[in-house]
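Backbone description:
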Amino acid sequence: MLGMALGVMALIVVLSVMNGFQKEIRARMLGASPHLEVVADGGQLNDWRTILEEVTQNPQLIAAAPYVSGQGMLSIGRNVQGVMVRGIDPSRETAITELSNKIKAGALGDLRSGEFGIVLGTDLARALGVRLHDKILLVSPQGQFTPAGLMPRLKQFHIVGLFEIGMAPYDNSLALINIEDAQKLFRLGDAVTGISAKLHDVDLAPRVAAELQNQLPDDVYANDWTHQNSNYFRAVQMEKKMMFIILSLIVAVAAFNIVSTLVMAVTDKQADIAILRTLGASPRSIMKIFIVQGVVIGVVGTLLGSISGIVLALNLDIVVPFIEQLFRVQFLAKDVYYISELPSDLRYHEVMLVAGMSFLISMLATLYPSYRASKTQPAEALRYE
């Protein structure tokens, strides 16, 4: 029973932790990026106002806004870092992403047109050695021809804010500027790179993207967040499946314990089984006795494991700090991992799946010992009694 309970508990807790990590990283990822984007061939959307009006007619959309995106290089002194520059409208961006809530210093609203302000990630600012209100040089790869040859375009920006999302791709390489300043920097005129949007239900993003794709022109595409981050989520899903299979072996080992326990019981009770057979018990009734015994072991072990697994998964935020404090260790160091606490997301349909699988394995484990007991011959069993 304890072996079965331990396997079920471990499986429930590990699946809950993996769900928690996936949920936490997805929340952080969607906090900095939109649920859906509409882009054009060549990265330049000219008639964006018409497309924006068409996109906002979808009932699933909460808000939509144009943006400009391009690559650049930040330079100050001898420090140089490549960045992804994103031009946004601060008044509209607050309705699409959680960037305004991730600001650690300054304000996103300070990105005013014509003032050439810039907001950097904390890790990027630390790598460049800059702070709030410092001035920094932004180099655009789109150069201009001069008598001396092709020269890169340079523009000085002053830092008006610092943000921290908790994910390296954003904190290390994302720079935010005003959308009109970005249009001037990348020489887009009135055009934009694309349109970003936020949905009521983030899980419906693929369906909404498919609906918009049928309405948009042929040279305009709708991409959802699952497509943009498909490699990461596929890797997480594969890892979760593999962990489920690996940890299921614990339950399988417990099932082998049931087999060995029942085989020993059959061997020990040979004389009793023979007496029951001589009193008129049928092989089927003998088989049912040992099936019931194995099922009771499996059911009790599964219930104990499910209850303990649910309790532990729901209180992981209390149990883990207690263990860390007791043994003076830290499982997820803050200076190494972006998530310093073990998150847990208990899903009861997975608990039912684990419990059902455990019960099925324990049921199958009773078949061989029960069949062996039903084949006991009274004369042979009582010969040496």
